[in-house]
Amino acid sequence: MPKQLPITAMDACCSPLAREPLTEGQAGELAKLFKAMADPVRLRLLSLIASHPGGEACVCDLTGAFELTGPTISHHLKVLRESGLITGERRGTWVYYRVHPEVLARLSAVLTTTVTA
Questions:
Q1: pLDDT at 115 over 50
Q2: 96 - beta bridge partners?
Q3: How confident is the model at residue 14 (pLDDT cuts 50, 70, 90)?
Q4: What per-residue confidence (pLDDT) applies to 111?
Q5: Which of 14, 60, 83, 86 is the most exposed place for a label (fewest CB within 10 A)?
Q6: How far, CA to CA in Å, does 101 sit from each of 19, 43, 46, 98, 104?
Q7: Dihedral angle, C-alpha 5, 20, 22, 39, nearest 10 °
Q8: What's residue 16's pLDDT?
């Protein structure tokens, strides 16, 4: 089974960057997630999966959106899966992918600025 980012390790990482500095460990965990999303194909895949009706997408629905080979799409999906951003479930011949909304929420929380009066 591929190594996934432990969600519990991200729990302490919800303070906005502007409120308090990240620890070295928090920065390392977040960097893995941001690095996985930093590729345009992976960012589009993440968006396609998240915005797909029902919140999940079959790999068969994703490949047509790109002028890339199946193995290339599979590689990008593997990177997203191993980072912990998505999960995949095999159903017969196809794999269906879902985004981990709690991981995206933590990334969003870190990037949010807190305005104080």
A1: yes
A2: 58, 89
A3: low
A4: 84
A5: 60
A6: 23, 15, 11, 9, 5
A7: 70
A8: 67
Query: Rounded to an integer, what distance in angstroms lies between the CA atom of residue 26 and that of residue 110?
Result: 10
Task: Extract the tokens encoding 23.
Answer: 């620890």
Bigger pLDDT: 13 vs 103: 103
Q: Classify each residue of 96-116 as buried b or exposed e, where b means 16 or more C-beta atoms within 10 Å of its C-beta.
A: bbbbbeebeebbeebeeeeee
Q: What is the mean pLDDT of the chain?
A: 84
Please report where in the chains the tokens 């999940």 appear, as a residue: 56
Place of tokens 């159903």: 91
Tokens of residue 37, six digits: 């999303």
DSSP assignment of 9-75: HHGGG-S-TTTSPPPHHHHHHHHHHHHHH-SHHHHHHHHHHHHSGGGEEEHHHHGGGSSS-HHHHHH
First to last CA, the chain: 48
